[in-house]
Amino acid sequence: MERFMPISFDQIPEALRTPGAYIEFQPRAANLSELKRALLIGASEGGTATPLEILPINSHDDAMAKFGATSMLAEMAEVFKDNNITLDLYGIAVTDPTAPDLAAVIEVMGDDQYHYIVNPYIDAANLELLKIEMDRRWHPLHQIDGRVFMVVGGNFDAVRSFGQSQNSPHFSTLGVFDSPDELHKSLALYAALCSYYLDIDPARPVQDIDMPGFHTGAFIPTREQRNTLLYSGISTFRVQFDGTATLERVITMYQRNVQGFQDDAYLDINVAETLSRMRQLQRYTILSRFVRYKLAATAQHYGAGQKIVTPAMIKAELLMLYRTDFMGARGWVQDYDHYKSTLLVEIDPHDPDRVNFRDQPTLIGQFRVLAGQVAFKS
After folding, report:
1. Interacting residues of 71 by C-beta distance below 8 A, sequence separation 6+
2. Nearest CA to 275 among 258, 249, 252, 259?
3. Which pTM value belongs to this model?
4. Enclosing domain of residue 67
5. Are 356 and 346 in contact (CB under 8 A)?
6. Which family would the database say this protein is a member of (predicted)?
7. Cα–Cα distance between 317 and 309 in angstroms, integer?
8. Strand 37-42 and strand 88-93: pairing?
9. What's the CATH number where 233 sits?
10. For residue range 301-341, what is the model confidence (pLDDT) as tens digits?
11. Are both 69 and 172 inside the same structural domain?
């Protein structure tokens, strides 16, 4: 006798006697498509925009109309758009350009996600506010995280000191020293380039990237000085033989763990970016695959078409996602066998409606340094 295989429908009722072919769609198997958003924070000078109003920026002309033709935000938008036209760009004007308070900006942002935030205000008080906010956004109960880009000028000691004063995996700051360029323009360039390449592939190193329009000052840091900065939370550039500058290595400002010890877990910006994308895809995959499902410990004795999910099924989805998407399609991770052997998925012992999982992904590295030893004979 042929076994009956029940199928659970979302829209087609069981009590249906009118003849016809009724087919429902389940878009949950479709790919996740998301346009990344960048937010410019700055000063306006005239224009139609009201301070503390987040507005889309469609072009340089649009920015001039909204924030003023010669405003900081219009100039930032021009540089950003010249170097990154793929992101959905927004801008917000502070109320007092001479003494900006980012608390009001953070309040306006609410829980809307901005993947890349471009911030020219680097005083200690505002940075503490931003750090708290970015930690909140990274938290698993919010998951609306992003990266904050900044630049810092001054002499070598001042730049290094600023880097050492911060400790956040969500901040990334470029030292520009005595560059004659206005800081907000250098910032827009830095953010545009980083966000452009990270959006394409969060795991590829952001290095050896030309910085069009950037002018170095009289001070050019040596390799030893740049290495010191990379141990102080500051991203670096280097100057080519023709005088042009390229991004050398883009890092975060994370330097110490909660115990105060030196820690490089989030050194490169690729780590937080890749983990963020992976978390997003894990959430999307599981939540879109098992919409309105019942939960059982095992699938034994249930028909194959039943809307019932088990820990084993969720584990299989996570393993497939790791191997076929994170590894095969995107090249974000490695060592599938280790991931498979350490992945744990189980029903919470105190909540029968909750599934807990713990995984240990091995992120792919970035080829940055070649060290060789030549043992020769003469």
Report:
1. 42, 43, 44, 45, 46, 47, 63, 64, 93
2. 252
3. 0.92
4. 37-274
5. yes
6. Belongs to the myoviridae tail sheath protein family.
7. 11
8. parallel
9. 3.40.50
10. 888 888 999 999 999 999 999 999 999 999 999 999 999 99
11. yes
